[in-house]
Design goal:
Elements lengths: L10 E2 L2 H21 L5 E7 L3 H17 L2 E7 L5 H13 L5 E4 L9 H6 L12 H9 L14 H12 L8 E5 L6 H10 L3 E5 L6 H6 L3 E4 L17 E4 L3 E5 L4 E5 L12 E2 L6 H19 L1
Parallel strand pairs: 1-11, 2-3, 2-4, 5-6, 5-7, 7-8, 8-11
Antiparallel strand pairs: 9-10
């Protein structure tokens, strides 16, 4: 998929269609695995009742059913202790039905997510966030030479596949990432650097975020602030990937609407723009499934 840079309205990067294509491929690979007696299984650990997390977990298990991956789900109450969570992680590590699993973030206040992630069997890390797996990404040879035989973080991997699907060059381009979170900003910077992009990671202490965005060929907005990126922030023709999702109340209707970090009017300036919803979200979930299938194939 491609389009000329500089059109009057940005080309929409359809994450839903791309995710459907990934699932078609995975469905065939899962069938091939099952023919050899291997049944891929995704485990999930959810602590508490965060509405966003509940919705996301439900979506992951629906995706599993679509491609033939088994689901093993553990839901713990908000009051679960650190010991309870450790027991759940041990269960997933030891369960032969679980090919790979995730610990849904965020965890309740007072629970250190890093110490929980460290307890996972790295080979069963479906999110690619175990310190050992992130370390493989740090050590990877620049230029994309050689493969990384460990799971990659799902959202960064999905973003790279979106850019490639729309023939958006990465090597040699300047990328500005807004947000330095564990699941997107930090690992995405590592992945893009490996692909020979120049990556700038901005955050709340960056003196002038808008100035950093203006010089970028590719903008990744992952701050969680609705409408943060304005048209005058964006270089004409730049590719803009919107990762943020915020529920915003419409005072007239009393209903909530999902808004991204990018003001919709950026479409009049950008060359490519991913929508919210229907952009990064479906691809993130598709990459989770891909990590599970690849883990089964490695075994």
């Amino acid at each position: 998929m491609s389009a000329e840079i500089g059109v009057s309205r940005a080309v929409s990067i359809d994450g839903t269609a791309l995710a459907a294509s990934v699932k078609d491929d995975l469905r065939e690979r899962v069938a091939a695995l099952k023919a050899t007696g291997v049944d891929p299984g995704l485990g999930t650990i959810l602590v508490g009742s965060n509405p966003g997390s509940l919705s996301y977990i439900a979506g992951k298990h629906r995706d599993c059913a679509e491609v033939g991956i088994e689901s093993i789900r553990l839901d713990l109450p908000e009051t679960a202790s650190e010991s309870d969570i450790r027991d759940a992680i041990r269960f997933m590590n030891q369960n032969p039905l679980v090919t790979a699993f995730i610990i849904q973030l965020p965890l309740p206040d007072g629970i250190d997510p890093t110490s929980m992630l460290e307890l996972m069997d790295p080979s069963k890390d479906a999110d690619g966030l175990h310190p050992l797996n992130l370390g493989e990404l740090v050590l990877a040879v620049p230029g994309g030479k050689g493969s990384i035989d460990t799971p990659l973080p799902c959202t960064p991997r999905g973003i790279v596949e979106m850019l490639r699907a729309y023939d958006i060059p990465i090597a040699g381009r300047h990328v500005t990432i807004i947000g330095q979170g564990l699941t997107v900003g930090r690992p995405l910077g590592l992945l893009l650097t490996r692909l020979e992009a120049t990556a700038t990671l901005t955050h709340s202490r960056t003196v002038d975020v808008a100035a950093e965005v203006r010089r970028a060929d590719i903008v990744i907005a992952a701050a969680g602030v609705a409408g943060l990126v304005k048209p005058d922030w964006v270089k004409p023709g730049a590719a803009v990937i919107d990762v943020g999702i915020t529920r915003v109340l419409n005072e007239e209707t009393g209903k909530y609407k999902l808004r991204g970090d990018v003001d919709p009017s950026v479409a009049s300036v950008a060359g490519h723009l991913s929508p919210v919803p229907g952009g990064v979200g479906p691809m993130t979930r598709a990459m989770l499934l891909k990590n599970v299938v690849e883990a089964a194939e490695r075994r």
